[in-house]
Amino acid sequence: MAHIDSDIYSAIAYAHEAVRMKMVTGGYLVFDDAAVPSCLGATEAVEELLIRRDGMHAEQISPQFVFRSGLRDKGENHPSATRPNTGRGSA
């Protein structure tokens, strides 16, 4: 588990980069203050880095943003859901 508690974008970005490759699948990433109106840098970092760039989905957003490492949307639009064309069947 990584609990990142900062109010500014650069600190959250640095801390997230420091831990993200070391997280085990299913490990928790917790971000304090990202839902607090006076901490816009924290909100921007979580939205830009985790949600947009990394494609993560928050399991909880109040009072902290909580994400699970290595778990991504496996829906129809996810890259892992695409299947190679085998040339069989109709197009």
Give me a quick take on this structure.
This protein has helices at 9-20, 40-53; strands at 2-5, 28-32, 65-68.
Detail the topology: elements first, then pairings:
Elements: E1 2-5, H1 9-20, E2 28-32, H2 40-53, E3 65-68
Parallel strand pairs: 1-2
Antiparallel strand pairs: 2-3
Helix pairs in contact: 1-2
What does this structure look like?
29% of the residues lie in helices and 14% in strands. With 91 residues, the chain is of the alpha+beta class. The protein has one domain (2-72). Helix 1 (9-20) links the parallel strand 1 and strand 2. Helix 1 runs parallel beside helix 2. The longest helix has 14 residues, at 40-53. It is globular, with a radius of gyration of 16 Å.
Name some characteristics of this structure:
single chain, 91 residues, alpha+beta, 3-stranded mixed β-sheet, 2 helices, disordered C terminus
Strand order of the largest sheet: 1-2-3
Low-confidence stretches: 74-91
Sequence of secondary-structure elements:
EHEHE
C-alpha-based Rg, rounded: 16 Å
* Domains (count): 1
- Multimerization status: single chain
> What is the end-to-end distance?
46 Å
Contiguous helical run count: 2
Number of strand elements: 3
Helix fraction?
A: 25-40%
Mean pLDDT, rounded to whole units? 82
Residue fraction in strands: 5-15%
Structural category is: alpha+beta
Largest sheet properties: 3 strands, mixed
The geometry reads as globular
